[in-house]
């Protein structure tokens, strides 16, 4: 036996077996074929997405917003299918542990190896249905698709120059308050009602506290940048606010929420900062834009491998 162990051929075979075992662990297996089952977005799916939007935002989505929500949902399904095609659910430690725990909880008497249990969990659809595993796999696929993002330094320099010219890297900050007229409230002529209310506010026959509808984010805003205003009220609102005179009621300005009469108290210069500190968020935002552009392009190529069927939006209108 000792002579056998000392034989070079035995050493070669043992080492060869170890190499193959390591390769099996480190080198991903050949991916499975693409799933030919169509991705079907039914009327019920669209209605669920619409209700989720209402629950999260407190308002009904526009047709464009609902379509965007549907497209995002399709993207997630494509990423999830691609993750399953690459068997990431069987190789990722977090997903494996979650699936094993789920199956052992559902079938406590089941005695089998981890590999067997994982394939059973997959056959039961747990990789698709468990929200933690789904989110994990989608995030892993997003990272894989954006692992290599080409950055054009010259394009970044042009972007910084344009931002510097537009905002002066110091920009302006706005101090203003507003009276809100909700889009959900029944006004016979909303713009005429807003103009009449603006005249009364400027004449002093009514105060801002007495006028308008409640607004979730408050009535007074202090030291907001144009970007912060755009994030809260929309780009169109922020652009219009830049043209509003100070010291009197103006408007109405339009936002996704409804109409706003605004009183700009002051436009204040931002506190100057050093160039690097000011440029850092601009650079970060630009890099994120490049990453998202690459993700959209690579997602589009992935989507081409799947047949996608979406119910018409007008079927939702008939159901609600």
Automatic annotation (TrEMBL):
Residues 171-266 form the PpiC domain. Pfam families: Rotamase_2. Keywords: Isomerase, Rotamase. One of its GO terms (molecular function) is peptidyl-prolyl cis-trans isomerase activity. It comes from the Bacteria. Transmembrane segments: none annotated. This is PpiC domain-containing protein. It comes from Fontimonas thermophila.
């Amino acid at each position: 036996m000792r002579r056998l162990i000392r034989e070079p051929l035995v050493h070669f075979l043992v080492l060869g077996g170890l190499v193959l075992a390591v390769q099996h662990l480190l080198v991903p297996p050949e991916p499975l074929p693409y799933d030919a089952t169509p991705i079907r977005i039914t009327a019920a799916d669209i209605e669920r997405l619409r209700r989720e939007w209402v629950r999260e935002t407190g308002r009904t989505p526009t047709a464009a917003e609902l379509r965007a929500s549907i497209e995002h949902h399709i993207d997630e399904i494509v990423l999830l299918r691609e993750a399953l095609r690459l068997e990431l659910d069987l190789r990722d430690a977090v997903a494996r542990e979650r699936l094993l725990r789920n199956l052992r909880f559902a079938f406590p008497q089941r005695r089998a190896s981890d590999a067997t249990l994982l394939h059973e969990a997959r056959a039961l659809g747990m990789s698709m249905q468990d929200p933690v595993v789904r989110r994990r796999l989608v995030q892993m696929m997003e990272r894989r698709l954006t692992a290599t993002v080409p950055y054009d330094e010259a394009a970044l320099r042009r972007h910084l120059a344009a931002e510097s010219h537009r905002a002066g890297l110091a920009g302006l900050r706005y101090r203003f308050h507003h009276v809100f007229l909700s889009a959900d409230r029944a006004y016979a002529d909303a713009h005429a009602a807003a103009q009449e209310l603006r005249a009364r506010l400027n004449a002093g026959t009514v105060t801002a506290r007495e006028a308008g509808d409640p607004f979730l984010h408050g009535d007074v805003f202090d030291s907001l940048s144009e970007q912060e205003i755009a994030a809260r009220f929309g780009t169109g609102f922020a652009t219009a606010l830049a043209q509003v005179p100070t010291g009197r009621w103006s408007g109405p300005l339009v936002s996704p929420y409804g109409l706003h009469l605004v009183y700009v108290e002051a436009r204040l210069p931002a506190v100057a900062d050093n160039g690097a500190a000011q440029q850092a968020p601009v650079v970060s935002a630009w890099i994120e834009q490049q990453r998202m552009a690459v993700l959209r392009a690579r997602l589009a190529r992935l989507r081409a491998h799947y047949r996608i069927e979406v119910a018409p939006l007008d079927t939702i209108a008939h159901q609600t």
